[in-house]
Specification:
binds D-malate; binds nitromethyldethia coenzyme A; 59% helix; mainly alpha
Length: 454
């Protein structure tokens, strides 16, 4: 695990404030665009809403704005305009590692600029100076029954720190709307810096006989996380890859949307992120990666630990569907092709664990499941999403307690959603409050051939 270079305090604060200065510059350049859109072009129509969208989870309704990432249904995610391979190639790498500093990705998501190595190191130092988790958080975690789900613990730990919110204090004291982004940025950075230790503590307390490992301040975020989890190299790179891949998926997904929604009330980042994490804990969202692993284990169990034949696997897939369950890790609300996050992890597996039976099984599923889902005829997207591949890598490197997988997703997702809410406050995005209608109204408008919009 690579050490983060030493820096003097003076140098560090100069470079860290460089991120905030850059952010302010970007915010000031962006604000007039939003003002113009609302004031001069606000009534221009960009979408329409149909009854099935109204009942069907607002699917595809264009009514959210974010510049942190964009999800094209065919191509998949771009972070700040860059594809996943472009992002990995552009960001500065940790010495001796194949993946970039997670801290560099934070800078990139926040500003849209690729940081220099110096800037990435400064963020790593800044995170370390904010990383100490208040003692009471561990007390909260320890007070919970040990069989509590790790996501419940993770969410509770985050919201328990709400008393630390600088945004809440500054808001209570009175501050200008144009200043909101500053304490929001501070809260978000303070939270992000602490999440790896909180997650690792939950893991070691719950699954490793209550043996937490102290943080190592010489290490970068990914390296330190691997160290606190108790996993040797190359798990540090697995952590970096995993956190960056899961960071953002535009803003309509449930974790991002829930975080944004709660923050739109001017709730602080602690309340908002905890809400987003609660959304991530659903089996149709982040919990799917845990479901994939338990489902794969069932395949092995039913077949006495050996790889299935294609016929056996087809039967298992059909049995899953016929029992009324979904095939976990397949399908997507927006994507209509194989998720590039799946591809990125598949390439990692091909390089690092090509002969691992579980990886072979995942590849067999990839070969068979899309056709079966097409034949089943329900899922709009028969291709795998990020969750279909991620648990296998964790399992290979020794993290077999799959109840914990969604916490890993949560640490990664925090990078994106916290960046989003910083920008929400910077651009003065409004309280989110869509209008609801009744079933009677829908039936009336349906009979009339549509609602008359004046
Ligand atoms: N297996 C079986 N049926 C499926 C699947 C699947 N993998 N995906 C969608 N369907 C069904 C879905 O349940 C729905 O059935 P019904 O009409 O009976 O309600 C029908 O196909 C139409 O659903 P879609 O419009 O294709 O999907 P939607 O946008 O509603 O939901 C997911 C998207 C991701 C929730 C859905 O594909 C799913 O349940 N996938 C399995 C769970 C999963 O992998 N979730 C992780 C998503 C990614 N993440 O990390 O958050
Ligand atoms: C995500 O990463 O949030 C998932 O793929 C779900 C989504 O985008 O809706």
């Amino acid at each position: 695990m690579a050490p983060v270079a030493e820096k003097t305090d003076e140098r560090r604060s100069a470079t860290v404030s460089n991120l905030k200065a850059k952010l302010l510059e970007k915010i000031q350049a962006h604000r007039p665009r939003i003002t113009k859109l609302v004031k001069e072009q606000g009534k221009i129509v960009i979408d329409q809403v149909t009854i099935d969208q109204c009942i069907g989870g607002a699917r595809d309704v264009r009514c959210l704005v974010t510049d942190i990432s964009y999800l094209d249904p065919q191509e998949g995610i771009r972070f700040r305009g860059k594809t996943i391979p472009e992002t990995f190639a552009a960001l500065p790498k940790v010495p001796g590692s194949e993946y970039p500093y997670v801290e560099a990705h934070w800078f990139f998501l926040m500003t849209g600029d690729v940081p220099t190595k110096e800037e990435a190191l400064a963020i790593a130092e800044d995170f370390k100076s904010r990383a100490q988790v208040p003692r009471y958080v561990f007390d909260v975690l320890r007070a919970m029954p040990r069989d509590t789900h790790p996501m419940t613990m993770f969410s509770a730990a985050i919201v328990s720190m709400q008393r630390e919110s600088l945004f809440a204090k500054r808001y209570a004291a009175g501050m200008k709307k144009t200043e909101y982004w500053d304490p929001m940025y501070e809260d978000c950075t303070n939270i992000m810096a602490k999440l790896p230790e909180i997650a690792a503590y939950i893991y070691r307390m719950k699954f490793k006989g209550d043996t937490p490992i102290a943080s190592d301040p010489k290490l970068d975020l990914g390296g330190n996380f691997a160290h606190m989890m108790g996993f040797p190299k190359p798990y540090d790179d697995v952590a970096r890859m995993y956190f960056i891949l899961h960071s953002d998926h535009e803003s309509g997904n449930v974790s991002a949307h829930a975080t944004h929604l709660v923050a739109s009330t001017l709730s602080d980042a602690y309340f908002a992120l905890s809400a987003g994490i609660n959304g991530l804990a659903g089996p149709l969202h982040g919990l799917a990666n845990q479901e994939v692993l338990s489902w794969i284990q069932d395949v092995f169990k039913q077949l006495g630990g050996k790889l299935p034949t294609e016929e056996e696997l087809k039967k298992f897939l059909w049995d899953t569907l016929n029992s009324g369950k979904v095939i976990p890790g397949y399908g997507h609300a927006v994507l209509r092709k194989t998720d590039p996050r799946y591809v990125s992890q598949m390439e990692f597996c091909q390089k690092n664990l090509p002969d691992y039976p579980m990886f072979k099984l995942v590849n067999m599923i990839y070969k068979l499941a899309p056709d079966i889902l097409r034949e089943h005829g329900k899922a709009k997207n028969p291709w795998p999403n990020v969750d279909a591949q991620s648990g296998v890598i964790q399992w290979y490197y020794g993290l077999t307690e799959y109840d914990f997988y969604t916490v890993l997703f949560g640490v990664g997702r925090a990078l994106g959603v916290l960046t989003n809410i910083t920008w929400d406050r910077a651009l003065g995005y409004a309280l989110e409050r869509p209008k609801s209608v009744t079933t009677d109204m829908l039936e009336k408008w349906a009979a009339e051939g549509g609602r008359k919009v004046s």
